[in-house]
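Good morning,

Both structures are done.
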Amino acid sequence: MAQHTNTHHSNQGTNNRGFAGMDEEKQRKIASQGGHAAHAKGTAHEFTSEEAREAGRKGGEAVSKDRQHMAEIGRKGGEARGSHQGQRGGSSEQHAKAGAHSHKNR
């Protein structure tokens, strides 16, 4: 029996098919159309400020449980701070001293 080799498919499975396989701009356009249709129909959910606050809190809790991810965020922030330190003027000690003086006047 002859063995057939299919050269039209990659080993990536379904990664390049359907919505996920479209470029980002096309995905955005389709998603936007769906959002507009839901609003026009009256079935779109609009978050209240309380719902949005709660969703943000839950998301923050979920992200903060990943200690490795949080450490990476902190490391990147520290690196960025170090590379921009001269732009604000003064050393960290000078900033601390200025901050201490500004709190005395309150």
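Second structure follows.
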Amino acid sequence: MRSPFSSLLAASCALAALGWAAPARADISSWLMVGGGAVSWSQRGSERALNGVLTGDIGVGTSPDGRFIGGGLVRMTTTFEVGSEFALMARGATWGYQAGGFGLALDAGAYMRLWEGGSGGFAGAVNLGAPLGFTLTILGTVGSNDANSIGAVAGLDLLRLTLHRQAFTNWWPNPAPSHEERRDARAPGRRYW
């Protein structure tokens, strides 16, 4: 059985350690993109078709302070007049992309198509980021039942525009950024935008 003194000493040491510890940061990257565009697709040997699409991404990743950010996301793509497909993907992004400026993100994973007899397989995308969360995405799939598609989507990432934005802070301040304002490593002493 412990004495009250040893319990008090242990509690005091724990409280002192908490008081002396540096503040912890646990920021994560996050994505919430909506967009629209067009996709060319075929399945089961059918003639290629061109349809409009509406797509949405939601995902999380590692700290937004790193030069490269890794994470995962779920993407839903609805092809007008046909149906929807879902993808679970890994993402690798540059810091510029995550901070709401110019940058690149690559996505790769698996998809499941729920229309035209269904299909499943590989899904990939190249995302070109522009200031204020604007994104141009080239996406494609290859899967079962002779399914394949390729398309382009223009979208807006709402979290890169607001929470993670470090671009244009001179004229549009970000009052509560998700991470410290970073200076460009290639040009010390100068802001990103």
